[in-house]
């Protein structure tokens, strides 16, 4: 079975690794190309956009893809929407593999913001020391609030001219441990954390550290995505693919869009 994995997450990577070891599958792992030195799994990989939904449809048709697993980050809304359009157009099965969102626990002080601009507003007018952990692409929104001091953490450096004036950048891919997060936040005198609701373990320590230090978190909400069948972990995605193999054997090739 020929599978397209839209990747960029730990789960997408793990799924690609698992399929690379299973001769029943020929999977291609696709990345947008945002990270300079991406981690690439075994098996076929490709890097770069497809050219919108139509580009994705053309690529999938050319590669005779049988099924798509959208294992992109919950905030990668455009590619997830394109995956739904392409799956519908080609009448192919699509599964969205997405980690459950974090939920606030006792002691958490979360302030939900709809997007990065709303997060800027939520910081308020008074100068604060902000731990900005939202990746590098939306950092420029915080130029609108130059009164704050920012500690910005990302995998690759944000554009220099997109930074707010008082910003220190640290580059780190994670995962992050609780003790390290506590020391970092204490050392920088962090007064508020701005985060996306990534879910999963690798980035969760900053949330626990904020709880322990009684620091508020401005949590940028996940963007709405078009409806699609979903699962929450790699095991469930493997089971779904197994089912797809079984049911594809019961169908004529013309019904499989081949
Ligand atoms: N957004 C985040 O916070 C975040 C965090 C960690 C990792 N990531 C990963 O980074 C990638 C890009 O995120 P984004 O927020 O820029 O997504 P996006 O806004 O949904 O996508 C923008 C465009 O990038 C291309 N693209 C995105 N993911 C792709 C993939 N896996 N393979 C090929 N092309 C892809 C598509 O270009 P075309 O229209 O030309 O096909 C898409 O229209 C995703 O793979 C995501 O999993 C994102």
TrEMBL record:
PROSITE patterns: COBK_CBIJ. One of its GO terms (molecular function) is precorrin-6A reductase activity. Pathway: Cofactor biosynthesis; adenosylcobalamin biosynthesis. NCBIfam families: precor6x_red, PRK08057.1-2. Keywords: Cobalamin biosynthesis, Oxidoreductase. This is Cobalt-precorrin-6A reductase. The keyword DNA-binding does not apply. It is an enzyme of class 1 (oxidoreductase). It comes from Hyphomicrobium album. Pfam families: CbiJ. Its EC number is 1.3.1.106. The keyword Protein transport does not apply. GO terms for biological process: cobalamin biosynthetic process.
